[in-house]
Task: structure prediction
Amino acid sequence: MALRGRTPLVLVPVANPASAAALASLGNALAPPVVGEVVLLTVLRQGPAAEEGDDEAAPPALERALADVQAVVREALRTSVMGGHAPEVLIAVAPDPWPEIARVARSRRCESLLVGLSSAAEQAGTAPLERLINEVGSDVVVLRADASWTPDAIERVIVPVGGRGKHDALRARLLGSLGRQSAGRVHRFVRVMPPGTAPEVLAQAERELEVFASEETPHHPEAQVIEADDVVEALAAMAQPNDLLVLGLHQHRGRRLFGEVALRLARRTDAAVLMISHRA
Result:
């Protein structure tokens, strides 16, 4: 079965053993029920070829890289198998992981791509990730979290909603899976409106948000409308370290970009941030 010309595969590149389990778990949550599958991809960086006559022993850098690949696969597979999943594992050798990830996503016609964005990578810039997002025909989900973060630690999921909230099947699938994993987990939908908004307008907005939230997830969501001048500061003040913020990324002139709101919010909070970017 193919979804809109693509296979129901979720491609999950994993590079850091510390975050491999969390990414594998989220990948399983994003996969379509029954027909969905997860493909775990780890890329071994290709170094310069050995000169003829060199010692046959692998250099220390290669040995470390091979050990990391083994650790990544072990952690990701352990999480998946213990959760009752059977992912496919791909190991590739390439000089640069970004083009290789894009190549695999295209060749396998993946429905979704889940990518981890470490704090270090965020500080270095999002340009490589933006290039990847625009090179693939998949929905892309970006997780910004500490390497030690795990979905099991989520106490509350916060979903900011704009003035005209639009339902998102991928987000709804994720929320449903997270809700099934923990019945006590709170799903809070939030809309930020300008200070001084008339009380009757606020009340109407909250009623509309309650309906929207109940249609997005069946797990007893909360709806909250707040007044604030700065959306980022309001959400950052609300978010706690064990929360998960779920944001949407927008397009500009046909290109998918990290908006200023998403990047500022990721930098202003210790909570994990999940950013969803849909293909054009």
